[in-house]
Amino acid sequence: MPFSVQDPAARPTPRALFITCSDSRVVPTQLTGTAPGELHELRTAAHVVPRYRPDARCGTAATLEFALGTLQVPDVVLCGHTDCAALSALRDDPAPAELPLARNWFTRAAHQPAPDARPAGGHTPEARHLLTQLHHLRTYPCVTRRLATRRLRLHAWHYDDRTAELRTWDATARAFRPLGAAAARFAQDRLRSARDGGRGPG
Questions:
Q1: Angstrom distance (rounded) from CA 124 to CA 29
Q2: How far, in Å, CA of 75 to CA of 119, rounded?
Q3: I need a labelling partner for 106 at 20 to 30 A (CA). Which of 80, 112, 135, 161 fits?
Q4: SS3 83
Q5: What confidence tens digit (pLDDT) does each residue in 22-45 have?
Q6: Which pairs count as long-range contacts for 36-42, CB under 8 Å and 24+ apart, including other chains?
Q7: Which three-class secondary structure state does DSSP give residue 194?
């Protein structure tokens, strides 16, 4: 039976929060092979996640807190991509005059390489930006509490718009490695795990 918003009992419980760019080339359900209702999505220009600030009035922070505190998702996927128009525009110097709010938002949260800096650790500026956002996620109390009790997994993915290749950050190897077909099984594996007796890791 197709998913229907008219039938609350038929609504699947989201198994992951998927944070990505608002670029239309990035389609979370297509990348993960998930059906409607299986992902809770958060999309921002250049997939920016600001550092935690207790007094901030921030839609990104509120969505993250809701996904973890109310929906109890056991996984958060942060997904960047190549040729990000927002990332390119916001890195322009001087900044475009019509983007003062976006520029302010970006400078608070993005990785800011020196003009003559080489890619650190062999990573491109896009990859460094993605890893900076992953670091920012770890500043949120709702994230750190769940990580400490093994109720949450964080994932950093990088999607190549040109080749459709997905790579995932391997923290042990300090490198991105191909994700391949594993992405299509992401939600199915998590749903199967939940049905077998557990919502989260550990």
A1: 26
A2: 29
A3: 161
A4: coil
A5: 999 999 999 988 888 899 999 998
A6: 36/3, 37/3, 37/11, 37/12, 37/13, 38/12, 38/14, 38/187, 38/191, 39/14, 39/15, 39/187, 40/14, 40/16, 40/67, 40/71, 40/73, 41/17, 42/17, 42/18, 42/67
A7: helix
